[in-house]
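Observation: inputs received (chain + magnesium ion).
Thought: call the complex predictor directly.
Action: predict_structure
Action Input:
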Amino acid sequence: MLEVRDVNAQYETRYGAPNWTVRNVSFDLAPGQVLGIAGESGCGKSTLAAVLSSNAAPSLNIMSGTLKMEDKPLLNLSEHRGVPPDWRGTIVSLLPQRALNALNPTSRISSFVTDVVMEHANGVTKSQALDQAASRLMELGLPTDVLNAYPHQLSGGMRQRVVTVISTLLNPDLLIADEPTSALDVSSQKALILLLKQMMNEKLISRTIFISHDLALLSNIATHLAIMYQGEIVETGPVESVVRSPQHEYTQKLLNSLLEPTTEARERVLRTHRGITQEAAR
Ligand SMILES: Nc1ncnc2c1ncn2[C@@H]1O[C@H](COP(=O)(O)OP(=O)(O)O)[C@@H](O)[C@H]1O
Ligand SMILES: [Mg+2]
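Observation:
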């Protein structure tokens, strides 16, 4: 089990007392589980991700919180400003919100691989790191020649899949994916979700926290849901029970915003579409 308890964190600001950004957050996550964290923009999802992955901004104060990962000793998150840096990549891997833009445009994907692997794994040579990346890509059905490409030569969807594979090359116990699909078109979103499912099935990653404001997408990948509102997890449980019988008012509002389009709305879309098609045919 991964056990996270009582995380409280706030940003220091120049103007008066800061608000709590992450409040009393606790949850458990067993191997094989995917925890979907949903909540509107600004509710503290990325801040929580930063705390759990040792990527806290200098102005973020972690007031309290512990993390227990299986056989590892209990970690005091305020002491380490998150998890210890040597956990990054091997025990916890963060796929940050803007991963797609994080790739250096002047470097080939292969140099990203060697950076990730050689920084975190001792005594691995460049060619071993590249071999490892190539065989992982092959195992997951992705082309290996992407390693020689520059980021701009890959589509957004392919770039995101490659970044995901490389960030998890060292088989982390926990992958934290922060809105990994928000910049992708629908078919690339699907491909990334399939890839993550495959990596979970093959136990390349033990467990995942998947952050998104998109509940429909989360119900497709997550086993459990945590609904975050103003820094707090207001509701959590297996996906089906949260979706079927939401207890908190905010969860109900989130779910209501997802209702199927009415027949009338569907008709309107069809009419418009027909209109455009006829226009184009003229
Ligand atoms: N570096 C920062 N300094 C000060 N406040 C920040 C910083 N980053 C985020 N915040 C604030 O913390 C709150 C939570 O932000 P964030 O964790 O990014 O939310 P989410 O990922 O859910 O959109 C927001 O009110 C945001 O404005
Ligand atoms: Mg965010």
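Thought: report the result.
Final Answer: The chain has two domains: 2-247, 249-282. The pocket of adenosine-5'-diphosphate (ligand 1) is lined by residues 11, 21, 39, 41-47, 57, 59 (CB under 6 Å).
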